[in-house]
Design goal:
The chain is of the alpha/beta class. Helices cover about 35% and strands about 20% of the residues. The protein has one domain: Class I glutamine amidotransferase (GATase) domain (Rossmann fold, 3-Layer(aba) Sandwich), CATH 3.40.50.880.
């Protein structure tokens, strides 16, 4: 097998736990039939320790300014993303990774960070159903749609708190085929079969 896909997951105060833990679970555990991992996951944060929306405390692998090269950057959502998305440190990270040809993907209201960074201008995008109207009002140049996953190739947005799992399974299929997705979906034993 080739080198595992390098996946970075952004963490910030009040991040929604399932927004990042869902994709983390999929990416960190998915492997081929020889049990070789498909991905290597790194958490990247605004601080060394992040307190999540529900109170969970998480220590990150790297600070934003120390972010290693990535194949994919996952940007989750949560109250901070919905209310404080004008964070220039996060926007800078997103733009830098984009310049490196990194695929950028948002989960739920993480789309607000992508919009602020300018990645969604004149593109189709989605977010949590209760936030679609606000995203459209704040960024009228974006075509906000009611879809679970909007894949534009190098930019992917998803809608809803649990959509991070859909996103990760979508990427597994895109990179490694339907069998890889099905193998991981069976392991999760959820509605993704």
């Amino acid at each position: 097998m080739n080198t595992p896909i390098s996946v970075g997951i952004l963490l910030f105060p009040d991040v929604e736990e399932l927004d990042f833990a869902g994709p983390y679970e999929v990416f960190a555990n998915a492997s081929n039939q020889q049990k070789e991992p498909y991905c290597h996951v790194t958490t990247i944060g605004l601080a060394e320790e992040i307190r999540c929306r529900g109170g969970l405390r998480v220590r990150v692998d790297a600070l934003l300014e120390e972010c290693p090269p990535l194949d994919v950057l996952i940007v989750p959502g949560g109250p901070y993303a919905h209310n404080n998305f004008h964070n220039e440190r996060i926007a800078t990270l997103i733009r830098q990774q984009r310049k490196r040809a990194t695929t950028i993907a948002s989960v739920c209201t993480g789309a607000f960070f992508l919009a602020f960074a300018g990645l969604l201008d004149h593109q189709r995008a989605t977010t949590h159903p209760s936030s679609r109207e606000r995203l459209q009002q704040d960024y009228p140049q974006i075509e906000v749609v009611a879809e679970k996953v909007v894949d534009l190739g190098s930019i992917v947005t998803t809608g809803g708190v649990s959509s991070g799992i859909d996103l990760a399974l979508h990427f597994l299929e895109r990179w490694f085929g339907a069998e890889a997705r099905q193998r991981e979906a069976r392991r999760l034993d959820g509605p993704w079969h």
